[in-house]
Amino acid sequence: MAEVRRATARWLLAVAALVLAAGDGLSLSQELAAHGHERERLQAQAREPFAAALPQLARAAREASPAEVCAQVVALGLGAEAEMSTPAGERLAAHPAPIPVSHRPPAAALDAAPGGVLIVGPLGQPPRLLVYAVVETPGGVALLRASRLVDEGALADRRLSLAAHGLVLLLALVGLALVAAPPSRAGEAAGGALAAYEAAMDRLKTRGEARERLHAEERRRIEGELAELEAMARAGELTAGMVHEVRNALGTILGHARLLERDASPAAAREAGAGIREECEVVEAVVRRFMDYVREERLEWNTFDLGALLRRVATREGRARTRAVEFELEPGLEACGDEALLERAFENLVRNALEAASSRVRIGGRRTDGGWVAWIEDDGPGLALDPAEALRPFRSARPGGLGLGLPTAAKLVRLHGGRLDLGRRGGWTRVDVALPDRPAVVTDSTGQARAAAAATARGESSND
User: What number of other Cβ atoms are within 10 A of residue 186's Cβ?
Assistant: First the structure.
């Protein structure tokens, strides 16, 4: 009878070990596949902006010094550090400091890189993605290299998960080894092995839950600190611009008041009074638009007709301007997002195109894989500012403009998890707005998971 019980225990242990090994092996393969997809996603996020800026960087490499090119890479947000070196590996320049990872890709990998941009990594500690491109300088060919920091918390979670899978497979192998042992030894150790196996699994579960809680708390703390720093920096920049505009208006008001003191005739009083009223309205508009820009709003997700929204905005904004508007809208174009906030964003973009156009404006939209894209084009002379500069607050190319329209539109788009791109294509100035369908988590420019953005006041030009 004892032999039967021992044999039964051995078979149960064997079945449990096989099931555990099979299940964990499948889970491990899925984890490795997810790790590969995550690495490809991080590399794509680094490749796209670098490839878009590569023509600008190549032009700078021909016209400026290596140190200026490296500084431009960092200023454009393409990396935390940047370097230029000769094909032999001699460093020409670095900004703000040399990249603390020694790695050089083979020439064949650079030649085969899509779009001329090669991504390697993550490498080093803290982990970095390395971005490579070949540029021409007055002294010959040079290798441009930038580094982008990667979220170490996510990689630590992945390493912890892989270690857990390895421990589970080890326990399964121990169970199979006990089954394969001679019956006399296996019978004595079966009960103790099962108890040890259960205790080890409990300890592994407890340790994993504790590490997960620690990572979550640390992530929340860092996100809170970043949000506070971003808010302080943005408030300081906006306050400086607001003070400048208010001081200009107050100077005009003071001048009209002095005219009233010197000349009390009815005509002069009426003229000065009108000037004071107009400047007070300017001050009120500056304060109102500033408050709109920094006000927090929450997204109200819904599905709406994007084509109808674009036609409605174009009709409303085109009443005061004689411009031909052409539509290239995909039939039945539906989008998911906050319709009211997106309408405010498109009001600025369409108004900007109508004001800048010589005679024609084109508006289009279509579905993409997992989202949609809309564009506004005009046949005007083009952007007076660099695209990156035009998206910063209080940067206006129009006399008297506030410079809040385009930055507000960009923030509303980022609030939905999308992006806004400015450029010049085939004689047309074009703005592309690409948004996904409702993402699982929407982040603002600080990276914090919250619905915070500013809505521009109706009537404000995006060329402000």
Answer: 19
- Number of compact structural domains in the chain: 3
Number of residues that make up the chain: 464
Q: How far apart (Å, rounded) are the C-alpha atoms in residues 70 and 14?
A: 61
| Ranges of the chain with pLDDT below 70 | 1-28, 30-32, 34-36, 112, 114-115, 151-172, 174-194, 227-229, 231-244, 261-264, 289, 291-297, 384, 393-403, 438-464
**38/169 same-domain check:** yes
Report the CATH number that the domain containing residue 251 is assigned in CATH. Answer: 1.10.287
Note whether residue 198 is domain-resident: no
Mean pLDDT of the chain: 75
Helix H or strand E segment including 62: helix 2-63
CA distances 264 to 250, 254, 277, Å, are 21, 16, 17
* Count of other CB atoms within 10 angstroms of residue 41: 10
254 and 310 inside one domain: no
The CATH number for 411's domain is 3.30.565.10
pLDDT value of residue 443: 43
Question: Do the domain assignments include residue 444?
Answer: no
Cβ proximity of 235 and 294 under 8 Å: yes
DSSP readout, 328-388? EEPTT-EEEE-HHHHHHHHHHHHHHHHHH-SSEEEEEEEEETTEEEEEEEE-SS--SS-HH
pLDDT digits 0-9 by tens, 95-123: 888 888 887 787 777 776 766 788 887 77
Are residues 35 and 122 both part of a single domain? yes
Rounded Cα distance, 352 and 314, in Å: 11
**Do residues 28 and 111 both lie within one domain?**
yes
**264 is in which domain, residue-wise?**
228-294
| 28 within some domain | yes
Summarised one tens digit per residue, pLDDT across range 192-204 is 666 777 788 888 8
pTM: 0.40
418/277 same-domain check: no
Cα–Cα dist 353/377, whole Å: 7
